[in-house]
């Protein structure tokens, strides 16, 4: 099969990806058409694609917004192969990255402030309606066409497999540290859940000079958290005594947990005026007792990714401080096993698909 279409559709290119067809969460090979590269667009040949837990939520329709067939992937690193005539930020051959958003209104206050991720018309990288009515498809595929305003440059010093997860996991933890004023030396941060987001949160927080306590359900992660990732303390969240001893000690907590869990014990760990920042997306509603919040003047808040400028800032900061994700690089056809393992909390700490070397142009 030719990968270039005939006639007036000739600008459009057939893309090879792996898609979920339903809530079973099983992915299989899938051919689809990406839009032609427009004046403001760049086309990337995808090299690496991280597997975020959000991809797992999405293939299972945990958030009730999934559109099938769905090619997941929003931690995308690739090589620029085409630039539109109005593209100023990129050249053919650049190594660039795409995160969770590929469009927004461009004129609301969030877009004007550079935080298009909060724009009510923000378009997700996959499983969303694009301006032209097509459904967006993500990075578990051999190429992607993206508006240049939603693409960042990957600093040359970063290994590309370890850099891919920064496009989502990295910015999702970096952004609230900056926005909520947490990125200060000596400030005590709790990081709940040592997974894809959590382990890069530890790395960024240490680079900011913070005192970091990992709050985890997995005692087996303790040694690595302290010795390899540089955390200062490790608290097993199922151990009541450890929770009791740490009450009132933390300035802020970033909660990255993907599953339903109680946040009440976390609120107790905060100092007066402490902030609990939720970045994980458990499928069910959380329960909160008001009184411990009132009496401690505590804040519960949320945060999503960031805008292009902030993602670029985070990437450059990561390059300066040698921060990348710890990854297990896998071939494309391992993705279903990777999802099974991710569900069982069996990855240290991010699966990254070696797309360029392992995706094959199989038929549907
Ligand atoms: P992940 O790699 O699976 O890590 C989640 C961690 O949560 C696990 O490693 C585990 O850490 C902990 N955990 C798992 N099940 C738990 C349970 N039942 N109770 C308590 N802790 C549990 O996932 P991720 O990719 O980091 O993503 C985490 C969450 O963030 C997902 O819900 C994802 O959708 C969301 N997310 C949000 C944004 C955003 O924009 N806000 C962006 C990306 C991802 P321990 O073993 O240390 O306990
Ligand atoms: Zn993500």
UniProtKB/TrEMBL annotation:
Q: Which GO terms describe its biological process?
A: lignin biosynthetic process
- What this protein is called in its record is Enoyl reductase (ER) domain-containing protein
Asked if the keyword Zinc belongs to this entry, the reply reads yes
Q: Family membership, please give it.
A: Belongs to the zinc-containing alcohol dehydrogenase family.
Tell me which domain of life the UniProt entry assigns to the organism this sequence originates from.
Answer: Eukaryota
UniProt cross-references to PANTHER family, sorted A to Z: ALDEHYDE REDUCTASE
What Gene3D superfamilies has UniProt attached to this entry? Medium-chain alcohol dehydrogenases, catalytic domain, NAD(P)-binding Rossmann-like Domain
Question: What SUPFAM superfamilies does this protein's entry cite?
Answer: GroES-like, NAD(P)-binding Rossmann-fold domains
Task: Provide this UniProt record's keywords sorted from A to Z.
Answer: Metal-binding, Oxidoreductase, Zinc
